[in-house]
Design goal:
A hairpin with a 5-residue loop joins strand 16 and strand 17. The strands form 2 sheets. An 11-stranded mixed sheet has the order 1-9-18-17-16-15-14-13-10-11-12, with helices on both faces. The longest helix is centred in the last third of the chain and has 21 residues. The chain is α/β, with parallel strands linked by helices. The protein has 2 domains: 212 residues, Rossmann fold (3-Layer(aba) Sandwich); 271 residues, Ribokinase (UDP-N-acetylmuramoyl-L-alanine:D-glutamate ligase), CATH 3.40.1190.20. The protein starts with a strand and ends in a 7-residue tail after the last helix. The protein is built from 18 helices and 18 strands. Helices cover 40% and strands 14% of the residues. The relative contact order is 0.10.
């Protein structure tokens, strides 16, 4: 099974329908029971199982039956009309009862639980749970915290939209999520990671990618491994391109410097900074290898790739320079204020359309909202749709930054990146990402591969720092640069997945 494929709910329903004759519910419940055995306390404490009114409830009935067969003390809560259960779920319920299981219609406050299993709602939830289900979700969250026990969600935490990652209120806060057939985008972006905990995929003996193309993918090293080539000995700095950073307006030079340092340490042969601040220093004393230029001079320099935006500001001078940059025959990345200028001035958009080949845009949600003339709430409500809409409108490759960065290409394909952590919510991280991507572009990487690799590496470097104790609290953008260099060198010439 390919754990990097992502499917939306309508596609999954088609796959399920094509395999309706197979015992998918029994397989799902068995997979859930196996993980439940691992998670439950070794003392055999009671297990609380919540069964909902649909097929997700059927999965819960199967898991509960199998756990009872292993002599677990299972308390199953079900309070729906059994006559309205789908056929497979009704069968699973009867099998559970015939095997000696019993139902209760409310969650008991005692005993203390060794494990709670959420089988209330699966994929396809489009509104907030209400009534007793809302109460059960809130109670399950409270009891899991009280008893310090695992909370295992089946397929998708109840209250979470599996397609968008939008968490309704209330929503299960699972410590573990077992999702069936394939991963879903909503588990990996927006609110999903905060509600899913550790995620495993149970393929149920299906190979969906052999039947139907995935809707999207999880970004992985395999997406760009073909470009991770060791350097030849017979080479020189010109072999690895010249990268430029256009930005650094008044009081914002640091943003451009961070981007430049990242580009230098990700392997660009030469890295130039074109700074708008006329009072900016002529040298970076920490990284004197960076070649400082005035902004106009940078655009006269022979470059292979150019990043516009870090600390750029939104002045008339910044607008003029951005217009010139868009006419340059180089690989182009727009971030930060370059995106704000793009949203503000139709001339920039026109210049972008006239370019040969797609640019790269790396907006955060607020910048994306300006570019699409909508609200941040709308962007975050469906991040995959927003990223694809940006790619289509601006004829550019997109990285919609945030929890589970969404990468979308001009031809409609998309990925979700699963690396990264909350320590990255600090100033300068976007500048470092821009520098990393432009370094890969300068070295001749195709735009799509450079974008996926830069985003994936950026998050992976931050993850390594956290694993080493440097965060997430207090993690800084500058720290990510050196760790990204180390990790990138480890990847080069290897096929190790990450």
């Amino acid at each position: 099974m390919d754990a990097t494929t992502l499917y939306l709910s309508p596609t999954l329903r088609r796959i399920e329908a094509a395999h309706a004759a197979e015992p998918l519910m029994e397989r799902a419940g068995a997979a859930a029971a196996r993980w439940a055995v691992e998670l439950a306390a070794t003392d055999g404490g009671p297990v609380l199982v919540l069964a909902g009114p649909g097929n997700n409830g059927g999965d819960a009935f199967v898991a509960a039956r199998l756990l009872r067969e292993r002599f677990f003390d299972v308390r199953l809560v079900f309070n729906s009309d059994p006559e309205r259960l789908p056929a497979d779920a009704a069968h699973a319920r009867r099998h559970f009862l015939d095997a000696g299981g019993a139902e209760i219609d409310a969650i008991p406050d005692v005993p203390r639980w060794s494990l709670i299993i959420d089988g209330l709602f699966g994929i396809g939830l489009a509104r907030a749970p209400g009534g007793r289900y809302a109460d059960w979700i809130a109670t399950a969250n409270r009891l899991a915290q009280r008893d310090a026990c695992p909370l295992l969600a089946l397929d998708c935490p109840s209250g979470l939209n599996a397609d968008t990652g939008q968490a309704f209120s209330p929503c299960i806060r699972a410590s573990h999520t077992l999702t069936f057939i394939a991963a879903k985008p909503g588990l990996l972006t927006a609110d999903g990671p905060d509600h899913c905990g550790e995620i495993r995929v149970a393929g149920l003996a299906l190979q969906p990618s052999a039947e139907i193309d995935p809707d999207g993918h999880v970004a992985a090293l395999a997406d760009f491994a073909g470009h991770l080539n060791p350097r030849r000995r017979n080479t020189h700095k010109g072999s690895f391109g010249s990268a430029g950073i256009l930005g650094g307006g008044k009081s914002m030079v640091g943003a451009a410097v961070l981007a430049g340092r990242a580009a230098l340490k990700l392997g660009a042969g030469r890295t130039y900074l074109g700074l708008l601040d006329t009072d900016a220093p002529a040298v970076d004393l920490i990284q004197p290898e960076l070649m400082m230029r005035r902004a106009d001079a940078l655009l006269q320099t022979g470059l292979q790739a150019l990043a516009c935006g870090p600390g750029m500001g939104r002045s008339a001078e910044a607008l003029r320079l951005l217009e010139q940059a868009l006419k340059a025959p180089v690989q182009l990345l727009l971030d930060a204020d370059a995106l704000n200028l793009l949203a503000d001035d139709g001339r920039i958009e026109a210049h972008l359309y006239r370019r040969v080949g797609p640019a790269i845009l790396t907006p955060h949600p607020a910048e994306a909202a300006r570019l699409l003339d909508c609200t941040i709430r709308e962007i975050q409500g469906d991040r995959v749709h927003a990223a694809c809409a940006l790619a289509e409108r601006y004829r550019s490759h997109i990285a919609l930054k945030g929890c589970g960065t969404v990468i979308a290409t001009v031809d409609g394909r998309w990925w979700i990146n699963s690396t990264g952590n909350p320590g990255m919510a600090t100033a300068g991280m976007g500048d470092v990402l821009s520098g990393m991507i432009v370094a890969l572009l300068a070295q001749g990487w195709p735009a799509e591969a450079a974008l996926i690799a830069g985003v994936h590496l950026h998050g992976a470097a931050a993850d390594r720092l956290v694993a080493e104790g440097a965060g997430p609290i207090g993690l800084t953008a500058g720290e990510v640069i050196d760790t990204a260099r180390v990790l990138f060198n480890e990847w080069v010439g290897t096929d190790k997945a990450c």
